[in-house]
Specification:
This protein is α/β, with parallel strands linked by helices and 309 residues long. The protein contains 10 helices and 13 strands. Belongs to the bacterial solute-binding protein 2 family.
């Protein structure tokens, strides 16, 4: 499907105006995964008669996202799907939308006020305990439980970055993986360019490592780019990421990426739309709605190529 326009889009999905419902969708930004996430929302929305989606991207600006949500409220949308970059924005967003009496679905990033959400606010995401754990266990197996590891983290205030990084440490603390040692750990903000730069710095400083564990595929690919520019044979290092994006799967087919974890943008997008529609109808929806992560390796990649973001 063609990538959704970054600017505000009004997408009429049906001419059934008598029962028309409008869902406002606010994305914190539109990097590769979040674009796939938005496409998942839009494509599933197209299957529901009488539904209209109005989408916004805050382009990484938290204040702009607040303003966009305020506008959606003023426009009296029936529900809001919200992807925040910072989970700590949750309390503000929750109050703003709750005061307007509008159902709210947080997508992908879990808000810090998860346990305090009112009945008409829910979360659709994936259990981050699975992502970093699956990723690091596979790296441990490939290294046979011993080796030096560098870690590339996402945005420090993002719940997924915190959880995935904690998962790495938890796996390394287990008996089977205690021979792994984290020698460097830095934030690269989900960005391939930042990861490329960080890897160049590590290589220039003479940092020795056997594996790169990244909180997402974009950073894993940035690290690969830097290592290849430096002439490092990719067969000598294990590289792992999360998301199973199309670029990541291509890198795995090429022999550069060893591990990725499918976080289904399509699954999260569809589940978020379904949850929003149910909330509009005042149906009960669980507070937490998890879409499972899945381990992707060169051995099973053929199964996942059609499911890439």
């Amino acid at each position: 499907m063609k990538t959704a326009t970054l600017a505000s889009i009004a997408l009429a999905i049906s001419i059934s105006a008598a029962h028309a419902q409008t869902i406002g969708v606010s994305m914190s930004d539109l990097d590769k995964f979040r674009t796939a996430l938005l496409n998942g929302v839009v494509s599933h929305g197209q299957t529901i008669s009488g539904l209209k989606l109005v989408t916004e991207s805050a382009k990484g600006d938290n204040e702009l996202q607040k303003q966009q949500v305020q506008k959606l409220i003023a426009d009296k949308v029936d529900a809001i799907i919200l992807a925040v970059s910072d989970g700590d924005l949750g309390p503000q967003m929750t109050k703003m939308v709750a005061d307007a009496g509008i159902p709210l679905v947080y997508i992908n990033n879990v808000p810090s006020n998860l346990l305090d959400l009112p009945d008409n606010q829910v979360v659709v995401a994936s259990n981050e305990k699975e992502s970093g754990t699956l990723e690091t266990k596979q790296v441990c197996a490939l290294l046979k439980g011993k080796g030096r590891v560098v870690v590339l983290m996402g945005e420090p205030f993002h719940a997924a970055a915190r959880a995935r990084t904690r998962d790495i440490s938890d796996v390394i603390a287990t008996p089977d993986c205690k021979g792994l040692q984290i020698v460097e750990r830095q934030a690269a903000y989900w960005s391939s360019d930042y990861a490329d730069q960080q890897m160049q710095e590590w290589l220039s400083a003479g940092v020795k490592f056997d594996a790169v564990i990244a909180n997402n595929d974009e950073m894993a690919l940035g690290a690969i780019r830097a290592m290849k520019k430096a002439g490092m044979p990719m067969k000598d290092v294990v590289v792992a990421g999360v998301d199973a994006t199309d670029d990541a799967l291509a890198a795995m087919v090429a022999g550069d990426l060893d591990v990725t974890i499918l976080q289904s943008a399509v699954g999260q997008g569809a589940a978020a739309v379904d949850a929003a529609v149910k909330l509009i109808r005042k149906e009960k929806v669980p507070r937490e709605n998890n879409v499972p992560f899945e381990l992707v390796t060169p051995e099973n990649i053929a199964t996942y190529l059609p499911k890439s973001q």
